[in-house]
Amino acid sequence: MKAYFLESKEKQTKLELREVEQPKPKENQILVRVRAAGLNRGEFIAGHGLTPPGAAKPAGGEAAGEVVGTGERVMGRAAGAFAEYALMDRREAVPLPQGLSFEQAAAIPLTFMVVHDMLVEQGGLQAGQWLLVTGVSSGVGVAALQAAKAMGAKVIGTSGSAEKLSKLKDLGLDVAFRTRAPSFSPQVLEATGGQGVNLIVNTVGGSVFAECIKSLAFQGRLAIVGYVDGQLHADFDLEAVHSKRLRIFGVSNKLRSAEQRAATVAGFKKDFLPFFADGRVRPLVDRVFEFAELPAAKAYMEADRHVGKIVLKV
User: Fold this and answer.
1) Closest CA to 226 of 153, 144, 107, 312
2) Same domain? 156 vs 234
3) What is the pTM of this model?
């Protein structure tokens, strides 16, 4: 079968298409004929940790397709998803709701499961509370917006593009700030009546970390999920964290056990899957590329021209 491999070298990542043997599932796995796979920015950022330097590794992390042998339509996390076939942990395979295409389904697993972790498991977001998403036009940012609105929360988003923010107004974005600079806390405080937001999803990185701390309300929570700016370090106000009883947490799956990842999938199925089943949420797919066009899809993502998810059709 054909499969893409990804190699991280210095400040760039490089894709290579190879002919390899079809993977063989173990007892706890299923073999999936991949029909579509989602792109995720973190995988392509050299030094981000998802693709460490060394020998090239199978590329892709989420897929939608058919279970070989049964034909069941499923979506889920899948290592090596940029291939004609991929393996999924049985506990992580999620049946596709009616009405979702493979391309739409491939845009769901990683982003919305991470969002469930941030908004529900660790973030404790409640209806009526305020969520701030920095870099709201990213795949995770849009998913956070959509899920939060379905949960009844109010959402503020930042982006350097007025055009992208305008598109997200149709998805329910309550307040939009056009900025890439770490200077949005006064506007956030004004929009929330001086209280600040209850939860922040920081998809940008260290350059806006201190500003996020300033934007949080009493007992606010800050989720760390991305480093688009390449800054993995930041100074911040310890006194504010102390006095406002703030919580700062990460959502990486890198060190989690299979059981812990499966628990997040179970929570996603319980809390979020009904949103897709009844049509309250439809994943925003910016563009679909053909399988042979993955290098072009990678370049399109790196150019930061998309709003929502980029998907590869296999």
Assistant:
1) 144
2) yes
3) 0.94
